[in-house]
Amino acid sequence: MGLVPPCFITEIVEKDLREGKYKKLLTRFPPEPNGYLHIGHARSIVLNFGLALDYGGECNLRYDDTNPETEKEEYARAIEEDVRWLGFTPDRVLYASDYFETMYQCALVLIQEGKAYVDDLSEEEMSELRAQGKPSPYRNRSVEENLELFERMRRGEFPTGSRVLRAKIDPAHPNFKLRDPVLYRIVHASHYHAGDRWVIYPMYDYAHPLEDFIEGVTHSLCTLEFENNRAIYDWVIENLKGKCGLPLSPRPYQYEFARLDLTHTVLSKRKLIKLVEGGFVSGWDDPRLPTLRALRRRGVRPEAIREFVRRTGISRNEARIEMELFEEVVRDDLNPIAPRVLGVLEPLRVVLTNYQGEEWVDAPYWPRDIGKEGNRPLPFSQEIYIERSDFSLNPPKGWKRLAPGQRVRLRHAYVMELEDVVEENGEVKLLKARIVPGTLGANPEDGIKPKGVIHWVSARHALPVEFRLYDRLFLTEDPEEGGDFLKNLNPRALEVKQGFIEPSVAQDPPDTRYQLERLGYFWQDPVDSRPGRLVMNRIVPLKEGYRPS
């Protein structure tokens, strides 16, 4: 099975290659380096790079860097890092800003052919006339005047925003995008990649088709919000093919697909910035965020993200995908690779009154259905920690954990029964219990079976851990519900617990993912965790019994 599931785009690609429209497939992933990539970008990354791999083509990473006021080298480096982390190697890393001279020469051709003109209107005046379908009073300037003014724009003789270059198409066109769209604007700002060589910058609708054409892109894949822009894309290419160094054919074509959207989170760059700059999260890699670097820090593997894109498919139908599906894919990815270990999030100390010394139990890492072999020595001693929620003084009906008069099996160890409860100010501080002799790997000889199985760790041997329990960022499926997305933030999207984990993890590589039995999937936080101070992130909860906070 290929990286990209069969869809309308694979049908187009196969037809074009079969009919010889293109000798070789060439796609591109063209992010603007004005922020960090998020899970929504993963669909475009997998689609563009996946098609190239599936059909023996190539895929470029191209920075669509035509806005010097918002773009940074920091973002460009982070984007490439995220693409490579997802498992893709760009055939070339390119910059739209490297094509500025070619774009300028193409603009001169349009002016010379009477297809572009310099406009002095303010942005507000221009918007008003476009809305009315009326032409600019500067639309009929002569070719000579437009060439002179455009050259002066390039030399920096006019202030920012004072003039633009517009395509001369139709001021009353039914497609609003074609009502003499702006091709260039003046911006006196240094560019992170091009430096100070330019003070005029091409608009996206003019630059993007030229970038594709210059590079030899065959299939230009965009999300559906660019559907109306396709008309400008085609206009630019059709009016410049065979000119200013561009070939007559073959030319690229734009196709649109539905973007990836998830419940219980936001993918809008503006909203993500508000969360970060407002201090609602700790930074762009905060594991509560949907950015790729945040998911990476949380412990989600790139394999899971690629599978999520494959499983959700590529279509033209907009739909918000349930967070449950993403979590299910992550669990499916981790289940066969995460060894099972024991940890306690909210420890309750238990003293075993009839047990002395210690012993090491040979405990398997894997359940039988995984089909893997591997064991580790698990220490057992007189004092252990169990999960506080696994004990009840007054248990409800059907309780299958520890309670007065009710036995439990300690996972991989003995059957245990309660003897006494030590309370302080109404809170249970300590349990005294006894193990049922002869129950290591065997049922009690008296025939009284335990009600359930609980996890535990040896108090003497366990490693202290700060557990960070991450949940969904928003309480509602649609964060915009009610109008203010910040009011729907989940106050329990992060809970910190001071607990313990079995000592075997100290010998493992720090990037090992674990399933803490009955608790979820965890790994060491790659930023804050240290050998002497373990910090573990919950990647995703177990499906069984999970309830959103």
Q: Tags for this entry?
A:
Ribosomal Protein L25, Chain P, seven-stranded mixed sheet, elongated, 549 residues, 12 helices, disordered C terminus, alpha/beta, Glutamyl-tRNA Synthetase, domain 3, Glutamyl-tRNA Synthetase, domain 2
Describe this structure in words.
By secondary structure, this protein is of the alpha/beta class. Among the domains are: 101-204, Glutamyl-tRNA Synthetase, Domain 3 (Glutamyl-tRNA Synthetase, domain 3); 260-335 and 463-501 and 519-548, Glutamyl-tRNA Synthetase, domain 2; 348-456, Ribosomal Protein L25, Chain P. It is built from 12 helices and 27 strands. It has helices at residues 8-18, 39-54, 73-85, 100-112, 123-132, 143-155, 204-215, 230-240, 269-277, 292-298, 302-312, 323-334; strands spanning 26-29, 58-63, 92-95, 116-119, 164-167, 182-186, 200-202, 219-223, 253-257, 261-262, 320-321, 340-341, 343-344, 347-352, 358-364, 375-381, 383-387, 408-410, 415-424, 427-435, 453-454, 456-458, 463-470, 494-501, 514-516, 520-524, 534-540. The strands form 7 sheets. A 7-stranded mixed sheet has the order 12-25-26-27-23-24-13. It has a 7-stranded mixed sheet with strand order 21-18-19-20-14-17-22, with no helix packed on it. A 4-stranded antiparallel sheet has the order 4-5-6-7. Strand 8, helix 8 and strand 9 form a beta-alpha-beta unit. Helix 11 (302-312) packs across helix 12. The longest helix is centred in the N-terminal third of the chain and has 16 residues, at 39-54. The relative contact order is 0.10.
